[in-house]
Amino acid sequence: MNRKEFRAEFKVADDGRGFGSFEGMASVFSNRDRQGEVVLPGAFAKSLPRFISAGFLAVSHDWSEPIGTIDEARETDRGLWVRGEFHSTPKAQQARAIIRERIERRRQVAMSIGYNVILDSRGKNGDRLLKELELFEVSVVTVPANPEAAMIGAKHYRNLEQEMRNIMVSRMRREFLDSLAK
Fold it and tell me: Residue 22, exposed/middle/buried by CB under 10 A (0-12, 13-18, 19+)?
């Protein structure tokens, strides 16, 4: 699996249940990244239906604990736009809080895509032109390969701290009950 990182336009918002939603540009078309690769328009078109049903949001490509689901993804004139919901897990809510804080502090928040190359070629200047990709996941990362996409805003759940306490108490209660059952 390949990974391509971008500074990404990203928004975090309340989803009505308190866990939060996200949306943003996960990939930018037609610009050369730090690895000399260029994602071309149409590269995601064939894999989007499967990505929407099976893809996920992760932290630094950690597939062992996804932090969100993908509800919508499409190619725009600019790149790959995605929208989804965060999971209720502590790791997902921690990532959501960090994303929100970094955006509020006007600090970089980046994204990376996890994919396999189906079709590529070389450009006149030697760049690798990515024509068709099988997309698996999008990740929030620290250092992007493509500096052109940037997260731009965030909205947060007013009672996020209380929700996090509830999640932690629930987890501790479950662990305690599990220990009694042994």
Answer: buried
Q: What's the DSSP call for residue 18?
A: S
Token digits for 158? 């007013």
**Lowest model confidence (mean pLDDT) among 12-16, 37-41, 51-55:** 12-16
Q: What b/e sequence results for 73-102 when a residue is b if at least 16 CB atoms lie within 10 Å of its CB, and e otherwise?
A: bebeeebbbbbbbbbebeebbebbbebbeb
Query: How far apart are alpha carbons 54 and 59 in whole angstroms?
Result: 17
Distance of CA 117 to the CA centre of its chain: 19
**pLDDT tens by residue, 137-148:** 998 887 766 665
Sign of the C-alpha dihedral, residues 117, 2, 88, 26? negative
